[in-house]
Amino acid sequence: MQQMKKLIASSLLVLLIVTLFSVQSKAQQDAQYTQYMFNQMVLNPAYAGSKTGPSLTAIYRHQWAGFDGAPKTISGSFHTPFGQSGIGLFIESDQIGLHDRLTANISYAYHIPIGKAHWSLGVQGGLLNYSSNWTENQAFDPSDPNLASNESRLAPNFGLGTYIYGERFYLGFSVPHLLDSSLDNVSEVARRYKHYFGTAGVVIGMGPNLKLRPSVLVKAVPAVAPVEADLNLSLLIRDAFWVGAAYQTNDAVAFLLEYAPTKGGIKLGYSYDLTLTELAGVNNGSHEIMLGWDFGGTRGASGGSSSKGGEKILSPRYF
């Protein structure tokens, strides 16, 4: 128990350090997800294998709908436990105007039982492909030699993460890509810096059919962007239906609806973000759709499910 308290204290200290970053802003470069809590593979390789069975998730996000060239993102992830380990695959296609970014990562995580909780350490490796389709923009001068052809380049990617979780709480910190990449001499879009993510969440019982789930995501890109936070509060009804709202600092408010049974099965989600920045007058908000399937709940203290009277019992999955 004392070891568990030390681990939680250390992770909280890391989150505090991330929060204290203060730098001049551009914007967070990684794709943004309002429903990240249902697919944390997008943030942390240590999440791989944190369920009792395989888990599949796909997300489509259309940010700032109605704004020409606004980001559109499609991602898919798969992860599964493998003994005390977990393996996962994450693929993401992110389009911003004339620029496309394709990411593919393979993750490995090792899960250590600590009392009724688990501590996971994860690594990931993969490739990033950047492409800039300059010839598709007729507004540029075609005689400009820098814009006369399209560009496409590859870069390696490596990431690390740690994740502490129990049946009703989680705490994580990750750096999903450790290498700064400069791949395009023309566009700043084709440049990626280190991103730092801190996550935390808990489920609070409010009766037999109601539970409250506050969660937070802290993110920072020290090279170019200020610290930002996603603050989420959701209500779980009958262990299957989630209704929630979120505030994304300096950006938007969001509303979420999900069907995600805590014992596994199909999961469906929709979120709508209402922009609070100067872009509010030129877009119709952001839409995000989530579809997935969980084949089990969360790892129990012994690393999986338990049985009682010959019947297999899965721990609930809240995250």
Task: Describe, in plain words, how this protein is organized in 3D.
It is built from 1 helix and 19 strands. Helices cover about 5% and strands about 50% of the residues. The radius of gyration is 20 Å and the shape is globular. It has one domain (about 1-315): monomeric porin ompg (Porin), CATH 2.40.160. The chain is mainly β. The strands form 3 sheets. Strands 1-2-3-4-5-6-7-10-12-13-14-15-16-17 form a 14-stranded antiparallel beta barrel. The protein has a two-stranded antiparallel sheet with strand order 8-9.
Topology readout:
Layout lengths: L1 H18 L35 E8 L9 E11 L2 E12 L2 E16 L2 E16 L18 E15 L3 E7 L5 E2 L8 E2 L3 E7 L1 E2 L4 E12 L3 E13 L3 E8 L3 E8 L5 E11 L10 E9 L11 E3 L2 E3 L6
Antiparallel strand pairs: 1-2, 1-17, 2-3, 3-4, 4-5, 5-6, 6-7, 7-10, 8-9, 10-12, 11-12, 12-13, 13-14, 14-15, 15-16, 16-17, 18-19
